[in-house]
Amino acid sequence: MVNEKHLFIIVGVLVLAFVGFMVFDSGKRSGADHPIDETVPVTNGGGTPASGNAQEVSLHASAYGYDKDTISVKAGQPVKFDFSADPGAGCGRQVIIDNFGVNLVSRNGETVSATFTPASPGEYSFHCGMNMFRGRLVAT
User: Fold this and answer.
1) Which of 23, 127, 129, 135 is in Cβ range 3.0-4.6 Å of 94 for a Cys bridge?
2) Where are the beta strands (DSSP E) in 89-133?
3) 48-96 per-position pLDDT tens digit
4) What are the respective helix, strand and coil percentages of the chain, to the nearest 5?
């Protein structure tokens, strides 16, 4: 029979194993398999191209989720993706776009960016590290 002390130890070990797995799994999605082109020119904002072919989009997270659940871009054109989050946004302070190797974390409200190019039209999901906040990037 398992007493309360043993149950507490078992639960503690399981929690630590889960946290370790999440940290390890998040590191695997850092983008090593999908290089990000950081040399692409940026735009004037609003999702419209400026000089060059880049388009700029932004996403902001609060404690209630991302401010957009859908972001539209043009396929075949570079995207500069700006991300910021309120300090109290919890796991939403991270955004991951698996298909493009994007893994951004906004600490203390700063804006962080990644540049990538969706080569073909499609819908690509983005989410926080715990998959609680979600959305989709639609390339047409």
Assistant:
1) 129
2) 94-97, 102-105, 112-116, 122-127
3) 444 456 899 999 999 999 999 999 999 999 999 999 999 999 999 999 9
4) 25, 35, 45
Q: How many CB atoms lie within 10 A of CB 59?
A: 23
CATH class of 55-139: mainly beta
How many residues does the structure list for the chain? 140
> What three-state secondary structure class fits 82?
strand
- The H or E element that residue 55 is part of is strand 55-62
Q: What is the pLDDT of residues 15-25, one digit of tens each?
A: 555 555 554 44
d(CA 95, CA 104): 5
Every domain of the chain and the residues it spans? 1-30, 55-139
Global pTM reads 0.64
Tell me how far apart the alpha carbons of residues 26 and 138 are, in angstroms, rounded to a whole number: 23
Rounded Cα gap, residues 25 and 112, in angstroms:
21
Residue 33 · residue 111 · CB < 8 Å? no
DSSP class of residue 47? T
